[in-house]
Each structure stands twice: as C-alpha cells, then as structure tokens.
Amino acid sequence: MSVTVTVVDHPVAAEALTHLRDQHSSNQFFRAEMRRLSLIVIAEALRDVPTTKVRVTTPLAETDGIKISQRPVLVPILRAGLGMLPAAMELLPDADIAVVGVQRDEATHQPSEYVAKLPSRLEGRHCIVLDPMLATGGSLEYGCKLLAARGAPQPITIACVLAAPEGIAYLEKSGMDLHIVTASIDERLNEHAFIVPGLGDAGDRQFGPPH
After folding, report:
1. Top-level CATH class of 3-207?
2. Among 3, 79, 151, 160, which residue's CB has the most CB atoms within a 10 Å radius?
3. How confident is the model over 76-92, as a mean pLDDT?
4. Which residues are catalytic?
C-alpha cells in the first residue's frame, strides 16, 4: 500500500491560493477563489480517470475520442469540502455525489462521523474525495476507509487545497493506496492542529462560523 502526492504547479492556481490565504478576503471572494483553484486541482486529480475510446462525427469527418468509462463518485467531506463540489460537478456533470460528515474534536483532534450518505457498493467506481485541508489526516482517513469498505477501487483520489506534512505521513500509515493532489504542502501543524501558514478554517471562511 502506498500514498502518492502530486503538487499542482500552475500560476493561476498559485494566484488563487494567495487570495485564499489572505485574511482580508471576504467569504464571497473566498468561495469564488476556492472554486477557481478547485477546477485546476480536480482536473489534475482526474488525469488518470478510466476512459473508453469512442468514435465521434465532426461537421467534417469522423475521428477518435474518449469518454469516461464509469460515472465517478464525488465525495465532499462536510462541510469545507462543499466549496470544492461546484468545480467538481462542472468537470464531471454525470458524476454521482456521496457525502461524509466528519467533525474533529477540538480537544483530542480525533474525527467523529455525523453523516454518511454513500452507495452500498462502489466496486469499479472511481472515487474522488474533496476536502480543502489535509491537516492531521484523521477525517480523510476516516472517509477513505468508508469508501474502501464498500469496495471502492484503490488508489482512492484525494483532492485538496493544502496539505500538512504530518497529515501526509499519517495517511501513509493507513494501509490504503491513496493519491493526493494538492496546491501546496505547507510547513507544519500548530498546537491546535491548524496548517501553518495555511489559510485559517476553510469551512468558516466559506460559510461563516457554525455558532
């Protein structure tokens, strides 16, 4: 079992990430830039999606083309992952959508599930997990194990905006094949398990504080 990591190298992605990091960005602007960056990250995450050759007729001739073999499954980790979903749906309009709600105990930093709406069987379905922040890795490990238990083929793809080295190292011990695609690997986690330099709480900055 292995974990591979791809860091997106693109100036548009870097600019969007700069706007996300800026503490002065409004919630509205933050959401817009999350979508813009997500388009690039998710497109890269889909580089190896299974495809089938087809023939297509243009106004001038027939030629070869491809189609995605089976409908992928998009799995946003609530609630921050919802911000990546519009971009993913734009790229994969026929995809199925499952949701996993995992909240982190602020004292122990351990994940706990509060909702999981997933197909009962995922054999042969390419799954893309959406979560802007790979911090401790606990929530993403939990979500990916739910998918693996339902037969999702591995490697399972994780699309995120930021990753911490500690989170990547944690997932390397998960016993699963995973492919992480991110816009940046940041320096570290702080004592509160936030990514540094990071961008703050991605859920709060998109949707406002929960209380």
Report:
1. alpha beta
2. 160
3. 95
4. 104, 108, 201, 204
